[in-house]
Write a structure and sequence with these properties.
Keywords: Metal-binding. One of its GO terms (molecular function) is metal ion binding. This is Glyoxylase I family protein. It is a single chain. This protein is an alpha/beta fold. The chain folds into two domains: about 1-60, 2,3-Dihydroxybiphenyl 1,2-Dioxygenase, domain 1; about 70-125, 2,3-Dihydroxybiphenyl 1,2-Dioxygenase, domain 1 (Roll). It has helices at about 15-25, 80-90, and strands spanning about 5-10, 25-35, 40-45, 50-55, 75-80, 100, 110-115, 120-125. A four-stranded mixed sheet has the order 1-4-3-2, with helices on one face. It has a four-stranded mixed sheet with strand order 5-8-7-6, covered by helices on one side. The longest helix is centred in the N-terminal third of the chain and has 11 residues, at about 15-25.
Length: about 120
């Protein structure tokens, strides 16, 4: 029917919480600490749509990224204006790749990354 949510494990909960809420602007739906797992769980939304579960766990292994490894390749967000979003993220201190054109759709997009180097794509709707 549709994707319900995406789960992300971060290495530094405070840094990633700030990134996803203050830099990207996702809204907090719920935040809990699970003592038995020594784990935070933060439910995040875009608008009214629940989209990301952000987890912390003690000493998670690093994410293999380059060269590309099996698993989630990147997380893509749709935006109305790619140029404006890129400039906004650069002003907030992110390193953003140059804007590219999707050879199949003709739409603009660019990549940046979260604090744990998870590639994030911003794609023109």
């Amino acid at each position: 029917m549709k994707i319900h949510h995406i789960a992300i494990i971060c290495s530094d909960y405070k840094v990633s919480k700030y990134f996803y809420t203050e830099v990207l602007g996702l809204q907090i739906l719920r935040e809990v600490y699970r003592e038995e797992r020594q784990s935070f769980k933060l439910d995040l939304a875009i608008g009214n749509h629940y989209v990301i579960e952000l987890f912390s766990f003690p000493d998670p292994p690093k994410r293999p990224s380059r060269p590309e490894a099996c698993g989630l390749r990147h997380l893509a967000f749709s935006v109305e204006n790619v140029d404006e979003k890129r400039e906004e993220l650069i002003q907030k201190g992110l390193i953003c790749e140059e804007i590219r054109i999707d050879e199949f759709t003709g739409k603009e997009f660019f990549f940046t990354q979260d604090p744990d180097q998870l590639p994030l794509e911003f794609y023109e709707i």
